[in-house]
Design goal:
The complex is a heterodimer of chains A (303) and B (305). Chain A has 303 residues and is an all-alpha fold. Chain B has 305 residues and is mainly α. Chain B is 79% helix and 0% strand. Chain B has 13 helices and no strands. The longest helix of chain B is centred in the last third of the chain and has 39 residues. Chain B starts with a helix and ends with a helix. The chains are: A mainly alpha (303), B mainly alpha (305). At the A-B interface, helix 5, helix 6, helix 9, helix 10 and helix 11 of A face helix 1, helix 6, helix 7, helix 8 and helix 10 of B.
């Protein structure tokens, strides 16, 4: 009778709403205010990148030598025509910042695509196959990690020559190791799990096991890492452009704008302040989103 | 313990060999290092003569062997611009970079760790929120922008410190603060997380229940156990500081190896670029070896793994 009472108090399985892992993760993400702020910031940057010609009122490369180094509109001498002021060639800062989002977005996404593909593949192979495959990948990873990343990217760009795709390749080649470390560790623990052993016993080939069984289970960690790598790539690209080793000067980029604004720090502070704020806010948004994704995808991790 | 030492030392040796291979390959990436090193207006005959003079027409494996032997002796050829040994030129500038990096490291340890402890001891108070916001800014803002803003406020507006160059301790403050900002933010967040985890542990509750004083509980029992991940990360951050020095030295015209490397890139002086990359990577490998050994000293479980 006691058993019947207890059984009656437990809802039947059919009555309980089923919430999949993905839905549960999305709900956790939606309840995190910092992650939502991050998502909004990232969305704004993406919209600016995609629709720059429609959003920016002015041509980012149009020079007006009669209006050089104009202050922002709320400072004496500023006008509504140039809300954030102009640079040393009379180009509108706001338009250049909006167009600059394109370079940052392209670099961030491309670097993660290249670095992530190489790194996740290498990490899965190293973690699943072990043996000499793991040993070789581990040695290559150790060597890569021995290099200061900025210096390595500078050296590569120095030899090949500056340009957007050189920068993407240089940063992508330096970022893959981060994925190897994380994915390798996950793959090593997953390969001993029953579902992998069952797949092997049923005769599944290694590529199928890697793609169908291991990859979906390392995806969460790779996605979180990818988000932080976007932030790192944006900062690294802007650093290379600041050094004059990034995109050509004619292409609006936040780092390039900072390099131009450096010499006018005492007379036109806005030329250095606003591009830097743009980078900081964009990267902060990506970091907040990454933190939120990490907490949503793995709730056992304490903030 | 000795087996662990030998394993780590061998690993470092492998890494150094790999570093030499990568440094060699970077210059040969385009397939023709001679045309990369010669000025754009050089004629075909001049490039061919240079190629023969530098030995770039020999088989790749022969080139690498002579490069490796020379690099082991510290000989990376002459600087194309200054006609001095490239390695000597780079080593001359190393003390300035070491001074900058170690000053920044001091800031990271003296500001980042205490801020993290304070933040963990006062969670969800204004102290915690201010520290976390500053840490978020520090990890999001590019180093060179922080440098420019510090110059704008403290050098241009207030005139407290010089904006560039090397001199006495006044010249060191802004560059060291710039270089250390990112790492300080990272260490602060890590210390906070490590301390929170340790402060919630059962053995700490026991220590408090036993009536031990607050410093003994927090520092002796708490921080000591939180130290492991902090020390490891501090070792990594020292490497990050060396890497970030290239940007900071450019912003503040600090005469270190980083600035030398950037100047060498624009002057197409590749022996100097190679020398700087080799020095930096070797320092990284040795630093990581020291961190691994320190880790083994702090955590006996590692020695016998």
């Amino acid at each position: 009778m006691a058993t019947a009472a207890v059984a009656a108090s437990v809802p039947a399985l059919d009555d309980a709403p089923f919430v999949g892992t993905r839905t549960a993760s999305l709900r956790r993400l939606a309840r995190d205010p910092a992650a939502l702020i991050g998502a909004v910031i990232v969305a704004i940057v993406v919209v600016c990148a995609l629709f720059a010609p429609l959003i920016a009122r002015a041509d980012p490369n149009a020079q007006d030598l009669a209006a050089t180094l104009q202050p922002p509109m709320w400072v004496a001498g500023g006008t509504h025509a140039h809300p954030l002021g102009t640079d040393n060639l009379g180009r509108d800062l706001l338009a250049r910042i909006i167009w600059g989002a394109r370079v940052s977005a392209i670099v961030g996404i491309s670097v993660v695509a290249i670095g992530g593909t190489i790194g996740v593949t290498a990490g899965l192979l190293a973690g699943y196959r072990r043996g000499w495959v793991d040993a070789i990948i581990a040695r290559i990873t150790d060597v890569q990690l021995a290099f200061p990343l900025v210096l390595l990217a500078v050296a590569i760009v120095a030899v090949v020559g500056p340009g957007l795709w050189t920068v993407i390749a240089a940063i992508g080649l330096t970022s893959w190791v981060q994925y190897v470390r994380v994915v390798r560790a996950e793959a090593m623990s997953l390969r001993e799990r029953e579902f992998v052993l069952a797949a092997e016993a049923s005769g599944a080939a290694p590529p199928r096991i890697l793609a169908r069984h291991l990859l979906p289970n390392v995806a969460s960690a790779a996605i979180v890492l990818g988000t932080f790598e976007i932030a790192r790539a944006v900062v690294l690209e802007s650093s290379l452009s600041f050094l004059g080793l990034g995109v050509p000067p004619t292409t609006p980029s936040w780092g390039g704008m900072l390099a131009d604004g450096r010499q006018y720090l005492d007379t036109a502070w806005w030329t250095a302040l606003f591009p830097g704020l743009a980078i900081m806010i964009a990267v902060m948004g990506v970091n907040l989103l990454g933190d939120g994704l990490r907490d949503a995808l793995d709730p056992s991790v304490q903030p | 313990m000795s087996a662990y030492l030998v394993r780590r030392a061998l690993g470092a040796l492998w890494a150094l060999i790999g570093v030499a291979i990568v440094v060699f390959l970077i210059l040969h990436m385009t397939g023709d290092p001679a045309s990369v090193m010669m000025p754009p207006e050089a004629t075909k005959a001049e490039i061919e003569a240079f190629r023969h003079e530098q030995g770039f027409d020999r088989p790749l494996i022969v080139q690498f062997a002579s490069f490796a032997v020379a690099a082991a002796q510290g000989d990376l050829g002459l600087s194309l611009r200054h006609q001095e040994p490239a390695m000597a030129l780079a080593l001359q500038r190393l003390p300035a970079t070491a001074l900058l990096a170690s000053s920044a490291f001091l800031i990271v340890v003296l500001v980042g760790v205490p801020a993290g402890i304070l933040s963990a001891l006062r969670p969800r108070t204004w102290v915690d929120y201010v520290a976390r916001v500053i840490a978020l800014i520090g990890q999001s803002a590019p180093t060179y922008w922080i440098g420019l803003m510090l110059i704008l406020f403290f050098a241009v507006r207030l005139g407290w410190f010089p904006a560039s160059g090397i001199g006495d301790w006044h010249n060191l403050i802004l560059p060291a603060a710039t270089l250390g900002f990112f790492s300080t933010a990272k260490i602060m967040r890590l210390t906070r997380a490590a301390m929170l985890e340790v402060l919630a542990a059962d053995y700490l509750r026991t220590a408090r229940a036993k009536g031990l004083t607050f410093p003994r509980v927090t520092l002796w029992h708490g921080l000591r156990n939180a130290l492991l991940p902090i020390v490891t990360q501090l070792g990594v951050e020292l490497g990050t500081l060396l890497s970030g020095a290239i940007i900071t030295e450019t912003v503040f015209a600090w005469p270190g190896v980083g600035r030398l490397a950037v100047q060498a890139v624009f002057e197409r002086d590749f022996p100097v670029v190679e020398a700087v990359v080799l020095i930096a990577a070797t320092t990284f490998v040795l630093l990581n070896l020291v961190v691994d050994l320190l880790y083994a000293v702090l955590d006996p479980r590692i020695r016998y793994a």
